[in-house]
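Task: fold both queries, return tokens.
Query 1:
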Amino acid sequence: MTASLDGRELILGVTGSIAAYKAVYLLRDLTRRGARVSVCLSEHAREFVGPLTFRTLSGRPVLTELFDPQSDAAVEHVALAERAAAVVVAPATANLLAKAAHGIADDFLTTVLLAARCPVVVAPAMDGGMWLHPAVAANVAALRARGVTVLEPDTGALASGLSARGRLPEVDVIVEAVLGALTPARDLAGERVLVTAGPTREPIDPVRYISNRSSGRMGYALAAAATRRGAEVTLVSGPTALTPPPAATFVPVQTAEEMREAVLQHAGRASVVIKAAAVADYRVRRAADQKLKGKQDFTLELTPNPDILAEVAARAGDAFIVGFAAETTDVVANARAKLTAKGIDLLVANDVSRRDIGFDAEDNEVLLIDRWGGSRALPRMPKAAVADAILDALLALRAAHPARKAVR
């Protein structure tokens, strides 16, 4: 059984950091995934982002005062903590870390933290010098020793104008940590999963290339979900703007040929191969060594790229192979034809002619087709949820068909 945020009660604590505005985006992501979020603002957090913003997005009263006579929820801090599936504090200041480490409960948020018996995820944000201070390091160590998930801050430009470690982790990293804390079983432990993601770029000349609209989100979501569920993951990715899951082995590539080489290098030891990348079907036969000049017409001679999915399936051994089909017409018929032609176990098809799903979108709506004749349509949902559903499906299929290689 995998982690899900659908219907889960979460508490989002926000403290007085310049990064407090990012908690708005975190709240939006959590609610999009179906979580029911109660936001708790520290006194100083309200100096950066007002309660109205969080109330509007959460649809719930924002908790600020421990004993607010105008709030029915304010005196229910213990009951609220007991109902919560998880508490996430983002951003967490050095002051919050110190209070939590030493059991100080002098406001609503710190009282909730002391009362909570559910998983707690803390995402620090502070100046780099503060993060490296021995007192902060000791507080972080104490919290981690108690089972609190304290994320590592990112490195980059800080409010002080310096560049150092201290930035709030990205929203997707925080969400993955929450999902990981809620995962009841690591059902992919011992598996070696190879995932491909993103587009490829086929050069025309040193400054131009042929590519496609793939953002890489689906492949990255699969890699993140597989690591969260205990797998050893290798992510081979074309160029994207995404951050790879920290626990995955990341292999960046540019062209289809580079992706093929990387995939074949790592596929031999994989127990699961998931080919989510949108590999260019063609490349320029002879790319120019110098930038093409002028506005005159010219002709590009294209040649097919290697069929990485079919090649991996032919060499798969005992690995379970998952492919993707991005279609614009006759989705079911084209997907079934591709499943048979490639000789794979499971195919994930989606209609990329729709602007609300697929390429460049945060959501997806897909059809799962397996080579034993089964099919299952997944409704529109965030790609992180689709990723877990795909992993659930492949585990179920592999358990139901242990002798699948005999019929490949």
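Query 1 returned. Query 2:
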Amino acid sequence: MNIFTRGLYALALILTFQTLLNAEYLYKDEIVKRPAFASEVEKLGSELYQKSGITLRLVMLRELPNGKSMPEYEKEILSHFTTPTILLTFSEMDKEVDIMANDPSLYKYFNKNQVLSPVASPVQAFIMAAVYAKSWEQFNMLRKDYGGSILPLLAQKAKKEQVVGKYAGSLFNGYVDIAQQIAKSKGIVLENDPGDANQETLFYLKIFFYGFVLYAIIMYIRRQIYKRRHKNEK
């Protein structure tokens, strides 16, 4: 190994070590591992903490360790922090996403159920409620369950080479959503807020869903007409 090669190797180790030290808000990343992604999370997380006093950390795992459940793992991490901390945690192999805070009072600054809703829009929620609700109470509950900023994107199919990008986009969208809600609750402005990061994706997701529903309705009507015509023929 010549001097030049050793120098590059040493520089790579230093940069990697510095990245790990500075990765305060992207607390753990076993999946994406992209500098641009880490940089965006760090910038937004740092500004949010400086202006609100709340630390929002993102954890992205391949799999939960040692057979732990998601709440057990989150509580273990949160036990290391004394400052107000919120964890957004994703486990790829376990197919789980969760949000947990080390102080119950932090939940008043954001809507956990909305962020983790599997439904993107109110119209979609209404249709889902109409189809699946078994009581009036359940209908009212389901029709109000929408606005999800993570799961609707995670549920989308992606080619093998696009999966990591889907994970990054979905979790960053949720991270931004939580940060925006905290900022609004606290009456602060985040300069590093990228806005509605994945609204275009969510728009096309809604179009796909409504198109599918419309197609199902048309096929149902055609089927009923077909049955009636053949019934009259008999």
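Both queries returned. Flag for query 2: Residues 162 and 168 are 10 Å apart (CA to CA).
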